[in-house]
């Protein structure tokens, strides 16, 4: 499983790199079911002027459209950063089977850092989580992106 997790997370990292090239926060996501990629997404909140255009949301929508149904039973979502509350909620609503993420998000993570939505017994669907797959690569991409943003903001100093 770890080799496949690394393979699909690498795909998500490539999508995150695409987002960074478009000056979007570099986060990418891939949905896999039965060994097939059924959905991909990357952050496009600036491009689309849409605060909900997170990588996970795009990947979930694409996956649901691919299989022609709203529930993603049996599917795994791979994402380069721990999902925020909105995205963790979308995973719950989509009935995702499993979540794999790379880096923790101590400021907005709703899976393990701030909240534990994925295993809240009050909800009618829970899903297992694997964290830390290609964590350093994802964290470095985010660090570089925000360092460049700070440098640009400070006039290149």
Give a written overview of the molecule.
The longest helix is centred in the N-terminal third of the chain and has 20 residues, at 2-21. A five-stranded mixed beta sheet has the order 2-1-3-4-5. Helix content is 39%, strand content 18%. The protein is of the alpha/beta class and 157 residues long. The protein starts with a helix and ends with a helix. It has helices at 2-21, 55-67, 85-94, 135-153; strands spanning 28-33, 36-42, 75-81, 98-103, 129-131.
In a nutshell, what does this entry contain?
The protein has helices at residues 2-21, 55-67, 85-94, 135-153, and strands at 28-33, 36-42, 75-81, 98-103, 129-131.
Ordered list of secondary-structure elements with their pairings:
Layout: H1 2-21, E1 28-33, E2 36-42, H2 55-67, E3 75-81, H3 85-94, E4 98-103, E5 129-131, H4 135-153
Parallel strand pairs: 3-4, 4-5
Antiparallel strand pairs: 1-2, 1-3
Average pLDDT: 95
Largest sheet: 5 strands, mixed
Overall structural class, as computed from helix and strand content, comes to alpha/beta
Order of helices and strands: HEEHEHEEH
- Calculate Rg over CA atoms: 15 Å
Oligomer: single chain
Task: Quote the distance from N terminus to C terminus.
Answer: 45 Å
Order of adjacent strands in the largest pleated sheet: 2-1-3-4-5
User: Which runs of at least 5 residues are low in confidence (pLDDT < 50)?
Assistant: none
Q: Give the strand content.
A: 15-25%
Shape: globular
Please count the beta strands (DSSP E, at least 2 residues each).
5
Count of runs of 4 or more consecutive helical residues? 4
Approximately how much helix is present in the residues?
Answer: 25-40%
């Amino acid at each position: 499983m770890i080799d496949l997790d690394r393979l699909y997370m690498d795909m998500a990292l490539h999508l995150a790199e695409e987002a960074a090239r478009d000056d979007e926060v570099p986060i990418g996501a891939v949905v896999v079911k039965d060994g097939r990629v059924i959905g991909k997404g990357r952050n496009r909140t600036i491009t689309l002027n849409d605060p909900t255009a997170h990588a996970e949301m795009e990947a979930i929508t694409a996956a649901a459209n691919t299989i022609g149904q709203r529930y993603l039973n049996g599917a795994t979502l791979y994402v380069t950063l721990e999902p925020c509350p909105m995205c963790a909620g979308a995973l719950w609503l989509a009935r995702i089977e499993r979540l794999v993420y790379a880096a923790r998000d101590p400021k907005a993570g709703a899976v393990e850092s701030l909240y534990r939505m994925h295993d809240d017994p009050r909800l009618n669907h829970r899903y297992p989580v694997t964290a830390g797959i290609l964590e350093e690569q994802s964290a470095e991409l985010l660090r570089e992106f925000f360092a460049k943003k700070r440098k640009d903001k400070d006039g290149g100093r």
